[in-house]
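Q: I'm teaching a short session on how sequence maps to structure, and I want students to see two examples side by side rather than one. Could you give me a first protein with its sequence written out and its structure tokens following it? Keep the formatting plain so it prints cleanly on a handout.
A: Of course. Example one:
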Amino acid sequence: MKNVILITMDAVRPDHLSCYGYDKIETKAIDEIAKEGLVFRNVIATSCLTPVAHASILSGKNPDKTGVRDPFSKVQTRLISNILKENGYTTAGFTGIDFLSRRVGFDTGFDVFDEPTDETAWKKKTYKSDGRVLDSVWGNWWIPKMLDFIEKNKSIPFFIWGHYFNVHFHAEKQMLKDGKLKKGVLSDNAYYDAKMVYMDENLFKPMIKTLKDNGLRDDTTIVITSDHGESFQYDYPQHRTLYDSDLKIPLIIKDKDLPHHYINKTARSIDIVPTLIKLLDIKTNEKFDGKDLCWNAIFDFDNVIAYSEELFPHRGPGILQSIRTDDVKVIYNRSKDTVEVYNLRNDPEEKHNILDETYESMKNTLTTKEEHKIKERLKRLGYIE
């Protein structure tokens, strides 16, 4: 049986990893994994909100099936941790924010579960909505615990989920204070690139070394992804919209039975669990919204539709829902009753809403068809030639 490590990096954009072509920094350890695996260039998250996106990643299901729609929700479905535990795996989860805690139900199926506490956190924040109050804690340095878990469980099949939070905005303040970042070095966008380099050196590099030292490198399937992206258009980095900057995420899958390959077609975060189930040759009756990306499907899978949502309007421009294909993105703002349509082939940065011209084109097409039908009828009656 293969071991499995799933790392979800919080708020990490694929276009800031060197294996995706970024040249301002090098993420060498992640590159090492990417060189042996599948690298998906066009992966869409189900939400720009951490708990919603993670419930989908860990279950292979869209938010309407997971039960997690906002920060006050709880997991209402089985996760991959449940499936793997039932199939003989020892399971461990490590999280960096308590949006992904026991309180929310993310500990289901885990033998070991490590989450932030008041002692480990570097930030506390209170959320309020419709009379509800939620106190949250941010920050938990769990990497040494994960490495220790690998050492202690090297002789049995294990599944590890690690949620790395220190690329998220506000982490830089504590990291500067602790001397983990150098003031003024790679400081753009709240030290975003500096935090990426630190993550690569202090999470992925020691993880790879520990696997090699314990003879587990080849027999461990590694998945690297993010919950959502990050937008730099605000005064401070944020993720509040359903534009690609907030929804596009990296996805790297390294498995000894898979080739190294770059894949451009649209994939979704809900495809991760079905893909792992296939790679591990596990039988389950669980119904997934995602699809297996393995084998021949990898090189010729159909154009899929990616659904995303942000139903917690206190964060951004309103209650948002979107659907996306390789070619088109449609965003519906339910709060404002507005629709945006983008041609992603011609406008990948989603600058030009083509809703009006799309409507006019459709209307003209319908009008032309009706005129043609009328003319054909008049010809048959002999009124025109």
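Q: Perfect. Now a second example for contrast.
A: Example two:
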Amino acid sequence: MNSPKFLAAFVALTVFAGRIAVADVFSFTNLDLSIPDGQPAGMSDVETIVSSISQIGSVQVGLNIAGNFNGDLYCYLEYNGALSVLLNRPGRTADNPFGYADCGFDITLSDFATNGNIHTYEMVLTPAAGLPLTGLWQPDGRTDSPASVVDTDPSTAGLSLFDGMNPDGIWTLFVADVSPGGDSTLVSWQLTIDSVPEPSVAAVLGLGAVAAFIWRGRD
């Protein structure tokens, strides 16, 4: 005989397994916006989006920056009062106040990236000379001033700050080159918004059939 507790547990597992997420992708291409060299005031690209998603489950950001000294760059994404720090002088440590000298980024940032935090990417991968860093990385998340930030500072401002919000509205990507000595350009960026997962129709229908089968087994 199947107990009510067994049935309840099976129902919960079936619904969980059948949950699906929807993603909206917004690409902002061919920008080619100059990032002023050695100017902390930086530049911003402001974009207004209308999404089919009502509640953010997670956010990913694609970032394409052409440049010649990654350790100069500071970048954040701002929306609805929340600010996620994407780059904060990558490679800057107490022993290396200049950061990494690599040439640009063509990356995707996600809180769940297995490559780890972008601030110390050379611990995982050093791009070939003259080529941008690629791959999937976690955002820097360090809120300390770019003038003093180091690798040991806590990473607290990731992309999860946007979770639960309605994505419709104005998103601002800010980029600054905070130390003189090289020109950089924001080529393009991309915003991928995943919904909070909802139960799939197939799971709900399957659940009804399984529940009826289990209930018949009680007789």
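Q: What should students look for in example two?
A: Point them to this: Residues 67 and 75 are 14 Å apart (CA to CA). Also worth mentioning: The mean pLDDT is 88.
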